[in-house]
């Protein structure tokens, strides 16, 4: 077991998937080796998917006993800052008691102002404040897009470190290195990739990622199973 932002992971490799993929016939096999699961994306509390995911977590129909994250995005038709803020906040509040941690996803460049640190802060601030009202602590991860100006990235990282954002999720190797250097290792990093190649996963870990999140929609279950098994066995040998 490895502890990252106060959650224990059996190893560092997990998946991003929809609830539909988690119900796949092979999901039980992959869950045997999976390090964590990131469900979603979900947009606001009225989103059918988030309600189904919450019900699955309540009833434990997902059949796994590993950390589960809910990834939250804005609704497709939300365009104003107030609408987007409401989307994130309502989904977070609705699912708080059922997820182990949350990923606030700002990686979609169609959001326009996503590259603005003040915009990010306006969405994240109310969620961080709301977390204080709950008895149980749920880590919050912020997923960022590529192409952020280095100065803006540093501004965001400074805010994250000062306000107890628990980790960042990134898909760009240079950003991973920049976050590691700026934070001095104080801010855990989840690397996001669509590749299930073992060498690519190892490369991301060597770059400084604490966890690697593989998007399974573009890969085969057999390769994912092999990847999980490899890292589970490797972790067991070094335990």
Coarse morphology: globular
CATH H-level superfamily title = Aldolase class I
- Output the CATH class name: Alpha Beta
Q: Going across the biggest sheet, name each strand in turn.
A: 3-4-5-6-7-8-9-10
- Radius of gyration over alpha carbons? 17 Å
Tell me the series of helices and strands, N- to C-terminal: EEEHHEHEHEHEHEHEHEH
How many helices does DSSP assign? 9
CATH fold label:
TIM Barrel
Q: Kindly state the mean pLDDT as a whole number?
A: 82
Q: pLDDT under 50 segments (min length 5)? A: 25-30
**CATH-level-2 architecture:** Alpha-Beta Barrel
Q: How far apart are the first and last residues' alpha carbons, in Å?
A: 8 Å
Tell me what portion of residues adopts beta-strand conformation.
15-25%
User: What share of the residues lie within helices?
Assistant: 40-55%
Major sheet attributes:
8 strands, parallel, barrel
Q: Helices and strands: which structural class?
A: alpha/beta
Number of domains: 1
Describe this structure in words.
This protein has helices at 19-22, 27-31, 48-59, 81-95, 117-131, 150-162, 173-183, 198-207, 221-238; strands at residues 2-4, 7-9, 13-17, 37-42, 68-72, 101-106, 140-144, 167-170, 189-193, 211-215. Helices cover 43% and strands 20% of the residues. It has one domain (2-238): TIM Barrel (Alpha-Beta Barrel). Helix 4 (81-95) packs parallel to helix 5 and helix 6 (150-162) crosses helix 7 (173-183). Strand 7 (140-144), helix 6 (150-162) and strand 8 form a beta-alpha-beta unit. The model is unreliable at 25-30 (pLDDT under 50). The strands form 2 sheets. An 8-stranded parallel beta barrel has the order 3-4-5-6-7-8-9-10, surrounded by 6 helices. Strands 1-2 form a two-stranded antiparallel ribbon. With 239 residues, it is of the alpha/beta class.
């Amino acid at each position: 077991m490895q502890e990252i932002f106060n959650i224990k992971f059996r190893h560092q490799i997990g998946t991003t998937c929809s609830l539909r993929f988690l119900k796949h016939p092979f999901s039980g096999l992959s869950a045997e080796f999976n390090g964590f699961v990131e469900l979603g994306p979900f947009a606001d509390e009225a989103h059918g998917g988030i309600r189904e995911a919450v019900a699955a977590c309540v009833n434990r129909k997902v059949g796994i006993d590993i950390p589960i994250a809910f990834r939250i995005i804005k609704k497709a038709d939300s365009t104003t800052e107030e609408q987007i803020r409401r989307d994130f906040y309502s989904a977070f509040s609705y699912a708080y008691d059922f997820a182990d941690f949350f990923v606030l996803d700002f990686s979609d460049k169609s959001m326009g102002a996503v590259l603005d640190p003040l915009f990010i802060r306006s969405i994240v601030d109310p969620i961080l404040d709301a977390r204080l009202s709950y008895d149980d602590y749920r880590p919050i991860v912020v997923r960022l897009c590529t192409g952020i100006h280095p100065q803006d990235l540093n501004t965001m990282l400074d805010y994250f470190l000062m306000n107890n954002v628990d980790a960042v999720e990134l898909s760009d190797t240079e950003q991973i290195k920049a976050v590691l250097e700026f934070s001095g290792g104080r801010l855990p990093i989840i690397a996001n990739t669509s590749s299930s190649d073992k060498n690519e996963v190892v490369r991301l870990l060597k770059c400084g990622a604490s966890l690697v999140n593989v998007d399974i929609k573009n890969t085969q279950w057999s390769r994912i199973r092999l990847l999980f098994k490899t890292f589970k066995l490797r972790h067991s040998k070094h335990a």
